[in-house]
Structures are given as structure tokens and as C-alpha cells.
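Run: sequence + iron/sulfur cluster -> complex structure.
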Amino acid sequence: MANVITGSFQALWAALRQLPHKRMTMQYPDVQTQMANYYTYDPKLGVAKAGYKGRHILWLDKCTGCQLCSIACENISQAIEMVKVPTVVRPQNKKSLFPQVDYAKCVFCGFCVDACPFYALGMTEDFNLVSTSKKALLYSPEKLAVPPSDTRKKVEFKIEKEEAFHD
Ligand code: SF4
Ligand code: SF4
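>> structure
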């Protein structure tokens, strides 16, 4: 009985101690954390730039259609297929061949980004990819070229006194 009373007071005390603190719970998906930069890789320096590894961003003006991203993915998940997009004409990509990513297969390893020698591929903070349709998980080059929507309210975490909170 003594244990029950002590335990109850301990639980109550633990709850009361949180009252002066700002809340941690966010109303996902309406509110999201402000993620870091896109994950990118500098092939000249051989250095990766830290960032969130969500869905890709494809910079159409840089992609040459070299297929190295697709080759890098071949032994991982075969999520990249090179597709011809006749409507997208770029001087550096004579065949209009661009990567398409299937997020039903992608494991977000980032090896394709590391393999791109032309700074054409990165990974964004967009992790909202849940869908009941496999087709919706297939991102065409044009879809990959659109930066993630910035309409949701984003909050930045602050670390103070070894405790994290947001406004
Ligand atoms: S992140 Fe990994 S699994 Fe996804 S497309 Fe790139 S190489 Fe393939
Ligand atoms: S994204 Fe990069 S690696 Fe992939 S085809 Fe385009 S230029 Fe080549």
C-alpha cells in the first residue's frame, strides 16, 4: 500500500514539474519541425553536406542524364528509373533523360546523391510521403524538380538547459 501511495506521489510530482515548461507536442502534420538544409554532396571536394534525407530534389538545369544515380541505386533498391521527358529540353541533356524515383522502393540512403557528378540531385526535408496509392509514390523528374511545399507552419527547436522545446 505504501508503495502505491509513494508511486502515486512520484507520478504526480513528475507531472507537476512539467507545468512551467513549454509544450513539446506538435500538431503534426499541420506543424512540423524546421529541418536542416537539403542533403547534398560535393563531388569535387568529396564531401557531403549534412541535411535531412527526405524525398529528392532534382535540378533539371544541371542533370545531364548520365544515369550514375540510377546505377548507384541498382544494388540497393532499384528505385531509380531513367525516363525520357520530351517536354523538358535542356542543353546539357540532349536526350532529355532524367531520373524518376519510386518511393515504394527507396530506402533514403542518399547514395544516388553521392554518385551525381553534376550537383543535380539532393534530398529535401520532405518526409510526408505516405500514400495508399503506389502510383502516387512514383515521382517523375518534373515532380522531383519541385521544392517541397512550404505552406505548413514550421517551428525551430531550441536547446536550453539540456531541454528541448519549441514556441
Ligand atoms: S536514396 Fe538510396 S534507395 Fe533511394 S533512390 Fe537514392 S540510392 Fe536509391
Ligand atoms: S541526377 Fe546526376 S547522376 Fe543522375 S542522371 Fe542526372 S546528372 Fe546523372
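>> summary
The two ends are 41 Å apart (CA to CA). The pocket of iron/sulfur cluster (ligand 1) is lined by residues 72-73, 76-77, 79-80, 101, 106-112 (CB under 6 Å).
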